[in-house]
Design goal:
The complex is a heterodimer of chains A (about 150) and B (about 80).
Chain A: E1 2-4, E2 8-9, H1 15-22, E3 29-36, E4 40-41, E5 44-45, E6 48-53, H2 55-72, E7 75-83, E8 85-88, E9 92-100, H3 103-120, E10 123-129, E11 132-135
Chain B: E1 2-8, H1 10-16, E2 20-25, H2 31-41, E3 53-56, E4 59-61, E5 72-76
Parallel strand pairs in B: 1-5
Antiparallel strand pairs in B: 1-2, 3-4, 3-5
The chains are: A alpha+beta (about 150), B alpha+beta (about 80).
């Protein structure tokens, strides 16, 4: 269950819940992007990742991304969830699920969404390498989805 | 003048030593003046001043943006989500 709204979760993401959210009889294809914690970054062994989220602003911007997908592509339903808190290697950090009548728009919209997530959501991550930890170098937050 | 709620994130939170605080700005309350004030109070924020963005009530603003009483202002270092 999410801490605020439904889009930022402090507990492990359950994929089946997201598939249920986008299930739609008129959809012929569903594309799901699953982001997971990698075990290496910049040549070093990652042991954990700690996500910090500006929750209210992230929720707002996630809703805008969903609305943008529905406006730009003939997709049926969209569901996006992002984790916050401490994650281990292999854990799921973010999921984008998109259902559509046909696969072309589902793939395109899903790709667009994860790119938008990475460029517009107020989320930061601190990488642990054993006993040291460092904030991942990010990019300036871009304008929200129009 | 204005009293605003300032939220810090990531490196800025570590530099300020806190997640949030109320700040009163006596003179012309713009985002730029607020940032200068924050750096004066928390000198460790200095190295981050050039790279942070400012959001007011969840909207990213330019530094000329005027602040009003009760605004929620967030100091956002470069993001890294997903």
């Amino acid at each position: 269950m999410a801490k605020t709204g439904k889009r930022i979760s402090s507990k492990p993401i359950v994929l089946e819940d997201l598939l249920k959210q986008v299930r739609e009889d008129s959809a012929g294809g569903t594309v799901v992007f699953i982001g997971t914690i990698r075990n290496r970054d910049q040549g070093k062994s990652v042991t954990a990742l700690d996500y910090q989220v500006y929750e209210e602003m992230a929720e707002k911007r996630m809703r805008l991304i969903e609305a943008e997908l529905l406006r730009k592509w003939p997709v049926k339903k969209v569901a996006i969830v992002h984790r916050e808190g401490k994650l281990k290697v292999g854990e799921i950090s973010v999921v984008v699920a998109v259902s559509a009548e046909h696969r072309a728009e589902a793939f395109e919209a899903c790709r667009f969404a994860i790119d938008r997530i990475k460029s517009t959501l107020p989320i930061w991550k601190k990488e642990s390498f054993g006993r040291t930890a460092k904030w991942v170098r990010g990019r300036p937050i871009a304008q929200a989805s129009g | 003048m204005a009293t605003v709620k300032v939220l810090y994130f990531a490196q800025a939170r570590e530099a300020a030593g806190k997640a949030q605080e109320a700040i009163h700005i006596g003179r012309e309350p713009t985002a730029r003046v607020l940032l200068d004030t924050l750096v004066a109070i928390h000198p460790d924020l200095g190295p981050f001043q050039a790279s942070v963005r400012v959001a007011v009530n969840h909207e990213v603003v330019t530094l000329t943006a005027k602040l009003k009483d009760g605004d929620e202002v967030a100091v956002l270092p470069p993001i890294a989500g997903g």
